[in-house]
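Consortium newsletter contribution from the modelling node. Members have asked for a concrete example of what our holo predictions look like. Here is one, prepared for the hexanedioic acid complex that several groups have been discussing at recent meetings.
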Amino acid sequence: MKLSNDLIESLARQLDDCALQVQDTLKITEAHPDMDWDDAYAIQDVLRARHFARGARLIGYKAGLTSYAKMQQMGVDTPVFGFLLDIYSLPDGGQCQTGGLIHPKVEPEIAFVTKVELKGPGCHIGSVLAATDFVIPGIEVLDSRYRDFKFDLKSVIADNTSAAYFVIGGQPLAVEGVDLRTLGIVLEKNGQPVSFGAGAAVLGHPAAAVAMLANHLGARGQSIPAGSLILSGGITEAVAVKAGDNVTLRVQGMGSTGLRFV
Ligand code: 0L1
Ligand code: MG
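And here is the predicted structure:
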């Protein structure tokens, strides 16, 4: 680690304040170019502890930047991982308040719900499928705290990978009943299809992203508990939204989920 504990605390507070005050900031590596991966995840850990102190609860994890479309969109070359809290969850078909967000975007995802603990190292697609209770369509609402979504990997990890909200809905399916690689998706904004894709866009198989997450956590002495919700990453690039927009994700054989931005 390159940063002091005090600096890690202060950077987490800076990012937390940005979210609470709906203000953006420059990516933190501008001022701290020497920070390393452990520093980035340590800042994320402090951010999570600040949420816990306010009463939020951990409900799962997310993998981000897991598709080549997203990596290309954001100019990076490797996935990142973050946490999901109960306060990020929105009701299916419900409202998302844009007043509390800086510059929201949405992305279509396959969400996994686990039935047994997943602990790396050594997790692979097979272990993830064996540990999955069901998969379900999900839309993640991203809101980077960085100006114009301009960040590098360490900055975005510290910022909990731009997590803001998510919705899941439609038809949950057991993984035995679905080939997640060929699963087709359509994301609609205001009734118009705006992006299309298939599950294989996420690292060849969305379960590969969950395996990477389990191995990442395992390297830090952590695991994915049974009953966790995991967002496996955007299948397409993210789409900007504003108040007045309606967004629907349709997933082949799994129905749809959606949000209204107000
Ligand atoms: O879930 C994601 O893929 C987000 C990772 C962070 C990058 C972004 O804000 O788009
Ligand atoms: Mg995502």
